[in-house]
Design goal:
- Helices cover 37% and strands 23% of the residues.
- With 323 residues, it is α+β, with helices and mostly antiparallel strands.
- It has one domain: Methenyltetrahydromethanopterin Cyclohydrolase, Chain A, domain 2, CATH 3.30.1030.10.
- Strands 1-2-8-7-6-5 form a 6-stranded mixed beta sheet, sandwiched between helices. Strands 3-4-9-10-11-12 form a 6-stranded mixed beta sheet.
- A hairpin with a 5-residue loop joins β11 and β12 (304-308).
- α1 (8-21) runs antiparallel to α3.
- The relative contact order is 0.14.
């Protein structure tokens, strides 16, 4: 079903054409696989950058959101940040941006996100919950990886999307790159919606949203870069949701559990949390993965409430700031 006639792949493909036609400007590189699939390198063998990261963020959100790179203060730290806003938060995030597609073949593994999920219905239960699926002959998938998938796997992605390989585009965004770090920080609204859904909140009542999170300093080692992108959201991210909700007391209860600080694992840089979990994501309290601050405006009553805090000390420690 096309909700409000929105096709995330159609709108994302229009944005993708900027990368395809202006790769030199965006610091990206475009190549074709033998089967005709377009592969856009946004930071593996090329430099990428903030502009590429901003555009990839908008592509990943299916063209249903806008992004801006801004400067923001976090305590005494002044950091580049990405600000995203949308009038279609559920489609932009759960319907497109959410990293919910496990893509693997032999020794290759990556998490797929972006509008192609709405054709492949990965995972199906989310699309049933939000009442959405896409119908378009082209697809875009974003992979947080430092190498392209094997051709056999690429063909499987195209089959899952029910399209011809020449109508598929893959965008590669390594975490240890500016474009990669930018698009991960740009998941601030999605991270909050995913957490709200996990604690029992119906995402379909969310009508508008915005979020802002710092873009962490780049580190060449993947483990450090990955930890910094997590800390950017957990300790520096703010997400706002305008909701249509009847029960004000229930909403307050949901908000009490919404920010990252509601987790028992909160309070250390992510690299330490990950180490204590013996480098197993499944041993980390899933309630940790949330914005530092969550703000909810109830459109039914006009109330606005806030929970959480920006932790500039932990941000500085994670980002390696020297006094």
């Amino acid at each position: 079903m096309l909700l409000n006639n929105i096709s995330v792949n159609r709108m994302a493909w229009k944005l993708l054409e900027r990368l395809l036609e202006n790769s030199g400007f965006y610091g990206t590189a475009v190549s074709k696989a033998a089967n005709g699939v377009s592969i856009i390198d946004a930071g593996v063998a090329v430099k990428g950058g903030f502009l590429a990261g901003k555009l990839v963020t908008e592509i990943c959100m299916g063209g249903c959101a806008k992004a801006r790179i801004v400067s923001r203060k976090y305590g005494d730290l002044e950091l580049p940040s990405i600000f995203v806003y949308t009038d279609h938060p559920v489609i932009a995030t759960l319907g497109s941006q959410y990293a919910g597609w496990q893509i693997g073949e032999e020794d290759y593994f990556a998490i797929g996100s972006g509008p192609a999920r709405a054709l492949a219905l990965k995972p199906k239960d989310i699309y049933e919950e939000i009442g959405y699926r896409d119908d378009f002959e082209k697809a875009v998938v974003v992979l947080e990886t430092d190498k392209p998938p094997p051709e056999k796997l690429i063909e499987r992605i195209a089959r899952d999307c029910r399209i011809n390989p020449e109508n598929l585009a893959l965008i590669l965004t390594p975490t240890a790159s500016i474009a990669g770090a930018t698009q991960v920080a740009g998941r601030i609204v999605e991270t909050g919606i995913h957490k709200l859904r996990k604690i029992g909140f119906d995402p379909n009542v969310i009508k508008y949203a915005w979020g802002v999170a710092p873009i962490p300093p780049i580190h060449p080692k993947f483990a450090v870069a990955m930890a910094r992108t997590n800390d950017a959201i957990l300790y520096g991210g703010t997400a706002y949701y305008a909701v249509d909700y009847e029960d004000e007391e229930a909403l307050k209860n949901i908000l009490s559990k919404a920010p990252a600080m509601a987790s028992k694992d909160y309070g250390k840089p992510f690299k330490e949390i990950f180490k204590e979990a013996k480098y197993d994501f499944y041993k980390i309290d899933p309630n940790l993965f949330a914005p530092a601050v969550v703000i909810i405006n109830n459109l039914k009553t006009g109330s606005i409430m806030r929970n959480g805090e920006v932790n500039s000390r932990l941000l500085g420690e994670s980002f390696g700031f020297c006094v």
